[in-house]
């Protein structure tokens, strides 16, 4: 790299530092777009099926495949409208926002640290809500929704990588040793997390899966 190029890069870093804004890599931006799109797709399909179910109580969603994988049982439960309206309507808004943020990053957008912390807080709420819904699905409703599972996985990956992004840029401060481990093995938390959910699903209905 030439001296002039180095000076340009340094100048840009000083300018961005002065503004206190932080961007993201293209890989991270695409991750937000893809996970947001996956969650939005799940929320959209569930919302459409919910409206069909309201119009026709005998309607059977396409993802109701057997007594265990039954989206209809999930949609008819009280937990499916915990805020007084169908849960996926919340997903239509929040996942769309994540897609917009990802597209903004691809276009070169940079955001203040408080914005990134807000996104992290939103993802934390989302992953906490998904965990609660997962527990309700497995142990109270006793049914599994494939579209819900897609939303769970997308939200988990999203939360993990937004957190890693904030740790990488020291927006969230953690001990340096932990920071290095998380940056080196960033793929491990979402893989283990989703793997544990898979094992819970497998063991919860083990007799059904092997029958």
From TrEMBL:
Keywords on record: Disulfide bond, Membrane, Oxidoreductase, Quinone, Redox-active center, Transmembrane, Transmembrane helix
Major subcellular location class: membrane
InterPro entries membership: VKOR (IPR012932), VKOR_Actinobacteria (IPR041714), VKOR_sf (IPR038354)
This protein's record includes keyword rRNA processing: no
Domain of life: Bacteria
Membrane-crossing segments per the record: 27-46, 89-107, 114-135, 141-164, 185-206
Domain Vitamin K epoxide reductase: start-end pairs: 25-166
Xref: Gene3D superfamilies: VKOR domain (1.20.1440.130)
Pfam families, alphabetized: VKOR
Keyword Membrane set for record: yes
Membrane topology, from the record: Multi-pass membrane protein
Subcellular location: Membrane
Similarity annotation: Belongs to the VKOR family.
Annotated protein name in UniProt: Vitamin K epoxide reductase family protein
Classification lineage: Bacteria, Bacillati, Actinomycetota, Actinomycetes, Kitasatosporales
